[in-house]
Amino acid sequence: MDHMVFRLRQLPRDVNTLSTIALLSKALDIDPSAIRIFSLARSLDLWIPGKVATLMFDGIKVEDILEGGKLSNITKQGDEWRIRVEHIHDNSLILDVHFRGLTPLYDPPSASYAADCIAISGLASHPFGSWQPKDRSKTFMWIRDTLPKSLPHIRPILYGYDTSLVKSQSFQSIFDIALGLISHLRANGWASPTCKPLAFLAHSLGGIVLKQAFVSLAHRIERDDPILHAIKGAVLFGVPNLGMEQSHLEAVVDGQPNKQLIADLSLNSEYLQQLDEQFSGISYLQNAILYWCYETRKSPTVIQGSDGRWSRTGPEEILVTPHSATRGLYRETIKSDSIFPINEDHSNIVKFSENDPNYAIVAQKLEHILPRRESDPKANTTQETPESNVVSGQEYDFESIIDSLYIPEGDRRIMEVEEKFGHTFDWIYDKPEPGFVRWLRSGNPLFWINGKPGSGKSTLMKFIFKDRRTSDLLSDWKGHNTYIRAAFFFHYRGSPIQKSFEGLLRSVLSQILSENPPLSRFLWPLFDKKVLTSGDWTLEMLKKGLHNLLVQEEVPLNLCLFLDALDEYDGRLELICQFLTDLATIRSTPYKRIKVCFSSRPWDIFIHAFRNCYGFRIQDFTQADIRDYCLGSIKNERLPYVALESLIPDIVMRSRGVFLWVKLVVKDLAQAMRTPTLSKVELKKQLESLPTELDSYYSEIINRIPYVHRWKTYAMLETAVRFQGSLSPKDLICTVACSEPKIYQEALDALQRLYDQGVSDFADLVRRESRMYCGGLVEVVTGRDGTYIQVLHQTVEDFVTNPKFKQIVLEDRARITVENGNTFLAKYSMMPDRSGFCDGYYARAAERTSGRSIKTFLDSIPETVLQEKASFTTALAYAASADLRLYIIESVDESPNILRECREPLLTYTLNPDNLLTDDEFVKTIKVLLDGGFQPKHDPDMFTSMVKRAGRREVFYPLDPKKSNKTIGDLDIELLQLLLDYGQDPNLDIEIENSHRARPSLLGRMLKRIPSGDDCRDVKTITPLDYLFLVKGGWDSKSIEEVRVMYQAICLILGRGGVIKATQQECLREALDEFSKRGLSIEDLEAQLLPLSLSPPEPSRQSLGSKLKKTTSRLLH
Model's pTM, two decimal places? Predict the structure, then answer.
């Protein structure tokens, strides 16, 4: 073990280098000078906070100490050593050389800490050693020793995984390794929306693992995107994107379980080709910055010696060609800045020595991906609303408030939740241990019910919300403290409003006001109108409205909220935690008390936020309930109790408090009992063979379905979880019918075959097909708003959105399948009889989650159908309007001149009213169009509309803060610059049309009339700069943001050759004076524009006489 680098874990969090040496030297009974600490950083482990060190031993045979058995406090466990030390966590340190998992190498100063960088090693390599130069000392490793000095704002981290080849018994695939990486990221903080930006250094196989992880993350639903959004890019070294020379490795793994892993890296690998296509699209849509490094020296191959050992002494080969390492970009000129060579072989390409010139190249590229943190230049302009600002005598329409807050599906989830069975859950009132009764009578504000998925939390919450005993216990016997009870049950499988904070606020406000109408007067100061509509309530207004009700002191308010399934909230969980914490801080008075009972899964974020709250774990109290529920389920299956009587204790024990598991098991056993020859012993064996975890149970259900039907299984479940809103039974069946066809006509034929069957009851058809193809995991729900589809439970949705799902259902076919429910819904949305959801949402979602467009399908849609469905005559125009950037890119790859020759106003088509004021995604689509060759001159209205909007009031409106931190003004300037960069004429004529009957404006008086033909109009043409100076409105009413945007637009256009032709000096001078008042520099504008401005015209005698005559006439009359 000479010259070997060790990792030391579970160090106390308060240690430094000297105390670490002292601690370890004492534990190993060695001289402190024999220990060299190279790095000491805080552990990433959220469960065991501490520090991690990398170190070496000098001048001693450390193996004699660790394995000699002389010290009783050292125990070897597998390939690591546990060293017992008094007075530290778990009384032990852990020493290893394998470096598996995540290893932080440096702690940036908190003030400058801005990002993380994870290094992933390659095939048959060591997580630490593979990055070290091949010298004997092993004291230098550039990621640990040089990177923190060059980029101190970045925390470097190693990721280690098992990639050994010789005599390996591992059968893990690249997909399995990628899921392992995702699990480590999720467990160590990168699943939080507040995590730091993240980049990767990936070598060889490590790059393939990263690509697979990227694709697997994108496949999940938006809610699980924080990790994906955190990834800003990567520097990838010698990655075999298109395969590698691996024939020498095949001999190493011959007959071993890991043979398939090597086969997947071959030059003709279908898996690598599919992965690269998906990764290319997804990384592009995520704006990931990628650099590809390729080797320029041959590498020795692996051969087996006469002693049976394998060594790198074989013939030299090019292991990964430049073409494969750069994804085909080698010798391309378009993206040449994203590739770079290193003159080393495949292994040494990442082994930088001290002062290695190649290191500077990598550091520069890494800093481009993860720049140093900059402060936000924009000040916070949010203004707080006064706690109470009631205008006396204000008239208001109470009914309009209630109607405007109403959401049709607001209480749907409560209605859907099953009623409790028999006397289950009565213990919450009858026993003191849960503490619920004590809490109701106390002044404590919060009560947390947590439990496993499927353990009955929602059923219990519905029960206690509706049961009269809750109301009785809250109120005192005098009747002075009557509580308003309000509830909101989050529902992730429901419509957007059912899983949003907006839905919570609307529902709670509506319930409070319905019970206590006088409180409505505290909402009217928020509005300047007497009758409200639903659209008047923005999220900010809703938050301020609830705040006003809860802090006012004039109207008595005793409120008890019941909030179910916080884990199904579709947003940042920190927000919902803070919301509850803030409610708990509202001061109670004799006339105001706020209490909240809430439920969730026991996730880390909830444990941290509510660890000191009153509450209980539901599964600790439900053993008797499970037994009763089991008996009830047996009865529902129309079986005699005696049939399964002997198995009930085993079912209760194995359920571990999960009611849903009992329901599934009883159904399975009931089905088995309908086989006459099955004995009780065989029945018990079947029970014992069933998985106890729901995820495993769902996998078991899928495995029972014949493989020939699995595509239908995949399509039904994928469609059910991807649909946004209430999915009707007919739409589910029709979407599944459209799932396999590749072109429009095939999908139309599939639907016609379905209709020819004469199906009259689609709900019944879904029930039958769910049992046959999904094991009952898809169900039909009937509510007051109609019949719709959902999966059996939230855990089923979690199962379907897990990256493993596709592989479980489709097995080998999963490797070449990119389609998902979004793809299927996008195809069905274009069918003739389908109204709604053809706005491109699902086509965009398909691109974002699969990395591929539905180009083949869109191109096959007849022009007449496209015109009818989307109001466009070409698929390219539809793609521009729907932000289908991958479709556009694939179209250009197929026909390089398609955009250059296009005469449709594609840029204007991107200005979709739905996204124009919310995000800047369409700007990326515009850039794709321009990059692909579209010329701005073929769509002049785009530039004109941006110029006109630059002077309007809405420029200071912010975009959706969830999507962008920009204002509309920022967007306008960005678009103007983009168009000018791509050749837009800065002096494009802008036409101003006025009727002859219209009152002459200042602008009209300043411009010469130009005849426009025989019609009765005057058309004036001016330049963009003229427009910005002349059409300005009152300067006094303009905000600094409006003036700033106008100023930036003027400077931008002027700098690209813009001129004025019709602006008078008076008007120009006025604008320049206003700019100067606002602190904006005007010297350059004066120098360039004043000489071009028009002098004021001398009034003619005729015009003066005419004015005098008109004035006299008005005075006389």
Answer: 0.78
